[in-house]
Hints:
CATH architecture: 3-Layer(aba) Sandwich
Keywords: Oxidoreductase
Strand order of the largest sheet: 3-2-1-4-5-6-9
Largest sheet: 7 strands, parallel
Organism: Dioscorea alata
EC number: 1.2.1.44
Shape: globular
CATH superfamily: NAD(P)-binding Rossmann-like Domain
Bound molecules: NADP nicotinamide-adenine-dinucleotide phosphate
Protein name: Cinnamoyl-CoA reductase protein
Amino acid sequence: MEPGKTVCVTGASGYIGSHVIQILLQRGYTIHGTVQHLDDEAETKHLQCMDGAQDRLKLFQMDLLDYDSILAAVHGVSGVLHLASPLTIGAILDPERELIEPAVEGTINVLRAAKECGVKRVVVTSSVSSMVPNPGWPADVVIDEDCWLDLEYCKQNGIWYPLSKALAEKAAWEFAGENEVDVAVVNPGTVMGPIIPPAINASMGMVRQLLQGCSDHFTNFFIGPVHVKDVAMAHILLHENPAGAGRHLCIERICHWSDFAAKVAELYPEYKISSFPKDTQPGVLRAQDPAKKLIALGMHFTPMEQIIKDAVESLKSKGYI
Ligand SMILES: NC(=O)c1ccc[n+]([C@@H]2O[C@H](COP(=O)([O-])OP(=O)(O)OC[C@H]3O[C@@H](n4cnc5c(N)ncnc54)[C@H](OP(=O)(O)O)[C@@H]3O)[C@@H](O)[C@H]2O)c1
């Protein structure tokens, strides 16, 4: 698919969505971007001031549970990059309403609209959170695209955000299979790097907490650091390259939270970073370059040290730390 075509990006206002919009504009695309509230400058201004936005970015107000609002944004595009989904890793009062329903129904609504509008390909943003935790995964095998989160384990342990991502991804594959919609999935890890929107998102919030001395180590989270620009590029690569099929792990490496924290402490000794036991994610095998499918498609991943520097410098420059 040639740049210059029109694509729809859901969740345009968000942390990753803003980078997707920026790169698509640089590549000459015309974009239908969705935000939740068109009258809220916090969702729109950082997009509208990007180079090329005035002529080639049209924003649509969209609610994942409102099919017509999705249809309006998807009408007239040749591809959809579906990023919008609630991302909360803190306390959840009503997981069904806050996370699962918008993630699952929203994904089905986007795919339905894509089918109705004759869209060629939909790139869906899933997560490594749809792969783990999976206590049944063999201890001697590096986690890859064959790994799916254990739904029952997550329900029993109240691990809601990963559950919402796994259910949404499963719904996407089911809908694609039954309706002949061409879907490719990106499964990013912990996304970090420069922040464009005026608010901080959940993954950069985790880095900020670490720099503030927090000793949580997210036992149930798979730690796959990845640069936000690489995640944005992976979406565009899968949109432009029909050879990319199925799920795509999108991480620079698999490491434990302890490894990541130790590297942050080494690079930024002026912060009081908690020290952790060596294995903060027992059972998860460490691996370098595990995103073999994206690498085969031409992706180059930013090294972890640079990811950390870009993340911390952005937090500093925006006054978050
Ligand atoms: N950050 C990570 O480490 C990470 C890792 C793996 C996967 N992901 C996935 O990547 C995607 C983007 O995440 P992000 O980090 O960029 O988070 P984010 O900044 O919170 O962005 C989420 C986007 O979804 C939109 N959204 C949420 N609920 C919606 C609803 N009910 N209707 C319409 N739009 C809705 C938000 O709109 P508002 O701006 O109006 O709230 C926002 O644009 C999500 O699918 C997330 O699960 C993220």
